[in-house]
Amino acid sequence: MDEVRLARAYLSRVAEPPAGALGVLVEHLGPVEAAGLVRRGEVPRAVLDETSARAGVEVAAADLERAAAAGIRLVTPEDEEWPAWPLLCLANARDRGLRWAAPPLALWVRGPAQLDEVLGRSAAIVGARAATSYGEHTAAEFAYELAGRGVTVVSGAAFGIDGAAHRGALGAQGTTLAVLACGADISYPAAHTTLLNHVAKQGAVISEYPPGTTPAKYRFLVRNRLIAALAVGTVVVEAGRRSGARNTAASAAALGKPVLAVPGPVSSPMSQGCHDLIRSGTATLATSVPDILEAVGAIGDVADPRAPSPPRPTDGLAPQAVQLHDALSRSSPAPPDHLARACGVPLERVRALLPELELVGLARRTEEGWLGT
Amino acid sequence: MDEVRLARAYLSRVAEPPAGALGVLVEHLGPVEAAGLVRRGEVPRAVLDETSARAGVEVAAADLERAAAAGIRLVTPEDEEWPAWPLLCLANARDRGLRWAAPPLALWVRGPAQLDEVLGRSAAIVGARAATSYGEHTAAEFAYELAGRGVTVVSGAAFGIDGAAHRGALGAQGTTLAVLACGADISYPAAHTTLLNHVAKQGAVISEYPPGTTPAKYRFLVRNRLIAALAVGTVVVEAGRRSGARNTAASAAALGKPVLAVPGPVSSPMSQGCHDLIRSGTATLATSVPDILEAVGAIGDVADPRAPSPPRPTDGLAPQAVQLHDALSRSSPAPPDHLARACGVPLERVRALLPELELVGLARRTEEGWLGT
Predict the structure, then answer these.
(1) What is the pLDDT of residues A6-25, one digit of tens each?
(2) Which of residues 127-186 of B touch A (CB under 8 A)?
(3) In B, which residues are within 8 Å of A217 by CB distance?
(4) ipTM of the complex
(5) Residue of A nearest to B266 (CA)
(6) Which residue among A49, A321, B61, B265 is least enclosed by CB atoms within 10 Å?
(7) DSSP states of B57-82 as a string?
């Protein structure tokens, strides 16, 4: 077991994410030297603040063994698999002063999906736990179609929208990533154990927390920034006024990533958060998979996704011709002067327009006058 | 019967609206002189184009009598009741080259509402004829609440959303205006005869077409610009991809008026038009009456309309305090050093934060350690 990997495992446990100051130290000195300084407490005040409580917790080797036994690998910035490009936005945001945006020091990954490969075309689909059947149906449909088009579906494995999104992607035999707020070896919620095992078989279960870490409320918020960062764009399917999904959306927006929200009935509290996001300009409105593909930059997959409205026979006619056509009866023939008065178009114009309408099949000459068709 | 009124009645019938060139002539010469020139055909080519077909139709006196018999008055720009301010946007748009925006030459009005008084606080509520029950319910609710707050509800008396809007306003004993694409003496659709009579009793039925004019397809589009112009803002409740309500919304936007659209289920074709309007930026999203009041400039009626989200006990706590609070168990007391490792906050900070949490009732000291509350 190499010392870089051991150092990363140690650092992954020593600080509660997001650990911005420690991250900067590690970037400057490398994980091995940084870990040594942290152990000895020879670090700047800000790093001490993030590390002193657990500096003495030396379980890196045990963590790596325990992870391996559970089919979990440690993916670090030193590995080719590290999703460097998606996570760059976190470092940039941290450097702009957003403390919450500090990138993870390492990721614990359970599943065959290679993080450097599957995130280039990806969308986070997130939403309320207390979702409605409308929301769950929509999330599952979107995820199914996206996954079927090769887009990786990222979510948080929660009840409601998250679970529906994972299931939809799995149903399409697609790739889906579950990003957890606890160790990747812990099934949370417990009722999603089978779902998480399925995700780990077909995609990946991901966490920045070492094995055995239990979920805690603030870890969900920290986890949300990781979902927002990993995916190209974030789609909120349903969200109450105060919901974790809105936090994910706000994180994605702050990271400069596209945010979409799915509208719903105005009477549904579960759509309020989505409507607020759209109204405030944080999210653009999404009603279909093409909307999402457009936003996550996977255009070209679809020609022009939205069905054009069907043409009408009078499309392209000049206004006076439309007026005249409307004045024509289908049953009672009328002479040109009657038609002119009825529609207010000058008589000579009516005389010229009637044969034109006849030519395109919109008028018919009879012995008693003109009919519309 | 004065000659100005007779001239306006004549001009109202002589040209099929929108009659931009005739309108400019009348503005310059006044209705009496303009009517004389139109009769004799001594007008510029563009005016001739709008008037030659019906220049010889001399039924002004009969129209005014017929109108009076049906309880309809002619309101002209010479009258105090003329809604000069709302209609100004049409003349401005016409002068910018928008042919369709020509203002009406006169309005035929049936009902007690005084147009110069009731439009200052008004909203058009329009939408699909083939509305869903969700759409009709929403339109009726919004109209009821708006009318109850003294906002005049303007619509087009069609089946579906329009009818629901009028009914909602009537139910609140409010003022509602029905703007028709046919004479104000004609009930269209016929099934709305009772509704239109009710509107005429409590608000007004309005048309720029003289009595007896039958509806025609293009007159609905022309009528839509009038709805858009008369109301301060326009709310589209439901609209298919290709719907008259979208035309009203586009007119309102072109006239510089606020446009709002109500979202709905993404699976509902009747909400597609609304979603398109929001996505394209033509409309802002509206989910509630306060959204509409805000847009139509009737703020001040409502303090802060939207319910604030309920506060949480941990609101306002520093991040480390939140982390510590999350780490506290409600059943198993823990000493500060355990808590420090659990939440990753330095021990001395934990020792300082625990009494602070106790002070605000979020932690409790026991003999075996600390509990969360």
Answers:
(1) 999 999 999 999 999 999 99
(2) 134, 138
(3) 322, 326
(4) 0.85
(5) A287
(6) B61
(7) ---HHHHHHHHHHTTEEEE-TTSTTS
